[in-house]
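Filed under: proteins

Residues; backbone shape codes:
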Amino acid sequence: MTDLDDNARVWELIDKIGFCMLTTQTSGSLRARPMAAHAEPVENAIYFLTDVAGHKDDEIARWPDVCLAFADTKSQKYVSISGTAEVQNDRERIEDLWSTPAKAWWHDAKDPSIRVLKITPSSAEYWDSPGTVISYIKMAAAAISNTKPNMGDNVKVEL
């Protein structure tokens, strides 16, 4: 693949998988939590809705470097994103990102405690395997033939 194709593949996988583990730094350790991602490749940004009372906001204010880990274990597709995070009080963006699942956390998009978490990715790495069954077959064949299996693409991308 070309760099442009690899870049597009990263955004396709992010969009397809949809959920990720957001890892932030705390004083002396790392912390991850699941988040619903809204990818905007044209802006080179990934957005999330978050709550002003969440600890991640304080962590990001002190240590803005984050990691997003996307995983579709059934299809054996994974993406890791390194980037910089910022918390915004962008009411228009909140309205744009509002969806039914957000109602589990807030009554409506006008809730004053909702914030936008914007991640600007700097790099990504993806693993794009042919799927679980085919991967197992390739691993078994490699074990029998004493060779290494071709498990699909593993590519590092600058974003």
User: Anything to note?
Assistant: Confidence is low (pLDDT under 50) at residues 132-142. Residues 3-158 form a domain with the Pnp Oxidase; Chain A fold (CATH 2.30.110.10).
